[in-house]
Design brief:
This protein is of the alpha/beta class. It contains 12 helices and 12 strands.
Length: 361
């Protein structure tokens, strides 16, 4: 997938969706991290010029303004470091001008580097490892033009540090298109961290997309992420454009899900949890939580379980957020006589901490 040749380019629909998600999540991430850490880092590995031809803000400005325009900014006094990397000198210069216009508070530091993400970021991580230093809590947004520019081994190196999270954009249709083309072996090996992508060559187009999605998801998880979710951005008839989120934090996973479920509708676009390819769940204001109820029944059968266990299952094993559990799933099931409470409660169909439940056979 070749990038644009000009310094600036037009904003594509998929980028609009990516930025919508990026802004929402970072707005939730910052208060959590700054409440317990004196320094946090945000990385944009493929920063670009900072703005599009139509005047729209690019990811570096979105990341900065997620803090600068945050309603709780005055309560977030930690040092906030932004590392922006791009391999084009003209785009770096344009980004410097864009950021130079902003009034940055003393606790915000912006480091703009000219070079490749895989070289510059790798050197920084290697230096930290060699010195035995810890990396401050870091969120990295990885959105390359070429699929060889964000190697899986670098992501794995980054995720070995504690309190690090990554959001990676993968245009799988472009990857799938070149799967059987000569000369792509090195790039594809780097992207997936394995040569198992070859198993997708004989598959049909839809099967190939699903296979590559699942392979990247599994490789990301094995590289150091405890939790991985993928989110598909659908624009018109276009399918297969995914954001992959990786974290070791259960709370990070919770906040990403909340960010996704609170997305405002974008004209012509839909968003869905695509972690399990055959169970795409679209993010809607009034979702059908039947899949969540079925997952709970399958896990717990007619055995006793706690509300805490149900919350964890919801968060780690389903597309739904914990906000969908009580009033939208458990209470209706109890009302229909499918669920009963084992512990005494002061009010019916409420699920305080420690509540124990059981599905009726």
């Amino acid at each position: 997938m070749a990038g644009p040749k000009a310094t600036m380019w037009r904003l594509e629909p998929h980028s609009r969706g990516k930025h919508h998600i990026l802004r929402r999540y970072v707005q939730a991430w910052l208060p959590i991290m700054t409440s317990s850490h004196g320094r946090v880092v945000l990385v944009d590995g493929f920063a670009g010029p900072g703005r599009y031809l139509g005047g729209e803000e690019g990811s570096p400005l979105i990341l900065l303004k997620a803090y600068l325009e945050h309603r709780y900014r005055n309560h977030m006094t930690s040092e906030i470091v932004y590392l922006f990397i791009d391999d084009r000198a003209d785009r770096v210069e344009h980004l410097r001008k864009e950021i130079g216009i902003l009034e940055l508070p003393a606790n915000v530091q912006v480091d703009i580097q000219h070079g490749t993400y895989q070289d510059l970021f790798r050197r920084r991580l290697d230096a930290l490892q060699e010195s035995g230093q810890r990396l401050a809590p870091t969120f990295a947004f990885i959105d390359p033009f070429g699929y060889s520019d964000a190697p899986m081994d670098l992501t794995g190196l980054f995720l070995q540090f504690q309190r690090c999270e990554v959001l990676i954009y993968i245009p799988l249709p472009f990857v799938a298109r070149f799967l059987d083309r000569d000369g792509q072996e090195t790039a594809l090996n780097a992207l997936f961290g394995t040569n198992r992508w070859r198993e997708g060559i004989p598959l049909s187009w839809d099967q190939r997309l699903t296979f590559l999605h699942d392979l990247f998801r599994d490789q990301l998880q094995s590289s150091g992420c405890t939790y991985v979710r993928s989110f598909e951005i659908r624009s018109g008839a276009a399918r297969g454009y995914h954001l992959f989120f990786g974290t070791t934090s259960l709370r990070g996973l919770e906040k990403m899900k909340e960010a996704m479920w609170s997305l405002d509708p974008l004209t012509g676009q839909q968003f869905g949890d695509s972690t399990n390819g055959d169970q795409l769940v679209l993010f809607q204001a009034e979702p059908d939580t039947t899949p969540l109820l079925n997952a709970l029944k399958e896990q717990f059968s007619n055995h006793e379980f706690s509300i805490e266990a149900a919350e964890r299952l919801t968060l780690t094993d389903t597309p739904f957020a914990t906000g969908h559990l009580r009033n939208r799933t458990l209470a209706p099931a109890e009302r229909r006589g499918e669920l009963e409470a084992i512990t005494a409660r002061s009010r019916v169909r409420t699920y305080a901490p420690g509540t124990r439940l059981r599905f009726r056979a």
